[in-house]
Specification:
Helices cover 41% and strands 17% of the residues. By secondary structure, it is an alpha/beta fold. The chain has one domain (25-351): TIM Barrel. It starts with a helix and ends in a 9-residue tail after the last helix.
Length: 360
């Protein structure tokens, strides 16, 4: 009996220790844009090739360390996942599109799933509901069933509070699209969670992205819709003129963090961060530009994000970086020939407890 009690006591202590550890841990999530197949136009834009949106203007500083890779090849997913996990990234949130009957642009995610058992990197979905969306309730239900059948059952699917996580790009667009088939955003989220519960999950952990600054009013609104958390997508225009130094973007994010620290915290805030923004390869003269981004400036932003997370005793604690590879928009941490591993080193420096091994 004494041995059994001792084992039970030890188990309880281990569980308490694990719980305490979770409370202090910060997960690092990074959005992944699956736009770099060899047959897409996007590499042509970055190269400035004829017929592209940036004809005659190349952007060589954005060339990946892997070169202008064919994202449809599994080796690309394997290298990306290896680098990310090696430098302390917890999960990729893959941009995910639904055309009403099947997913689109899911080649990178499929390749990740082929290699996921070999790397300690988790994944989840960012439902890009501003692009291709369900037009009738059956299409929405089919989409949720697809999540259940193909993703939530994966051991590497990222969860919060034991629920599989789904990021929703736009809650406003969700409401608009829901009304087209006689529903509401609130009903759609509840409907999806109910389907997940039928399969034995405790629900779905829905997170919306927004560029509105944190506030009590925003948290009340999103809580009423049924979201479990919210995060900023990219506060690129929160401060300054159309063209500014990246320093202005850093200070804008730090102001957003201060605002988040002052809310009543009715809703969990997954703290956003961004390495920059310059969408001229895609938008030309209409682009918003935050010039002169550097890894050191990014460290300043990340430290502000960590300070906000450390000050909040609640869990979960997550920082969301936009993004791994938005080369067309100038928002990327993927290793490049200009910066090497410096942006990944920045993440490891702020959120990791050990120095990353040299990338191979």
């Amino acid at each position: 009996m004494a041995t059994r009690v001792t084992r039970i006591t030890l188990l309880c202590l281990l569980l308490l220790a694990a719980s305490a550890s979770f409370g202090n841990a910060i997960d690092v999530g990074v959005y992944y844009y699956p736009g770099w197949r060899s047959d897409y136009i996007n590499w042509k834009d970055v190269k400035g090739l004829p017929g592209s949106r940036s004809a005659g203007k190349p952007w060589p500083e954005r060339q990946p360390l892997l070169g202008y890779y064919p994202e449809e090849e599994p080796w690309v997913a394997a290298k990306h996942a290896s680098w990310a996990s090696q430098y302390g990234i917890t999960f990729f949130a893959y941009d995910w599109y639904w055309d009403g009957g099947k997913p689109e642009y899911d080649h990178a995610l499929k390749n990740y799933l082929r290699v996921s058992s070999k790397v300690p990197l988790k994944f989840c979905l960012l439902w890009a509901n501003h692009f291709a969306v369900p037009k009738v309730m059956k299409e929405y239900d089919d989409m949720v069933v697809y999540w259940l059948d193909n993703y939530f059952n994966q051991a590497s699917y990222y969860r919060l509070e034991s629920k599989p996580v789904i990021f929703v790009y736009s809650y406003d667009q969700l409401e608009t699209n829901a009304r087209l088939f006689g529903s509401s955003a609130k009903s759609l989220l509840a409907r999806a969670s109910a389907k997940a519960k039928e399969r034995g999950y405790p629900g779905i952990y829905f997170v919306t992205t927004t560029n509105a600054p944190p506030s009590d009013a925003l948290e009340r609104t999103l809580l009423d819709v049924g979201f479990d958390a919210y995060t900023g997508w990219n506060y690129v225009e929160s401060k300054g003129a159309k063209t500014e130094d990246y320093d202005v973007m850093v200070s804008g994010y730090l102001e957003a963090y201060r605002a988040a620290g002052q809310t009543a915290k009715r809703l969990t805030y997954l703290v956003p961060a961004s390495p920059g923004w310059d969408s001229r390869p895609w938008s030309g003269s209409a682009a918003v530009v935050r010039s002169n981004p550097t890894p050191d400036k990014f460290v300043t932003m990340l430290r502000g994000a960590k300070q906000l997370l450390d000050a909040d005793a609640r869990s979960p604690k997550v920082v969301m970086i936009e993004s791994w590879n938005e080369f067309g928009e100038g928002s990327y941490i993927e290793p490049t020939k200009k910066w090497g591993m410096a942006y990944l080193d920045a993440i490891k420096k702020v959120f990791g407890s050990t120095t990353a091994k040299k990338a191979k």
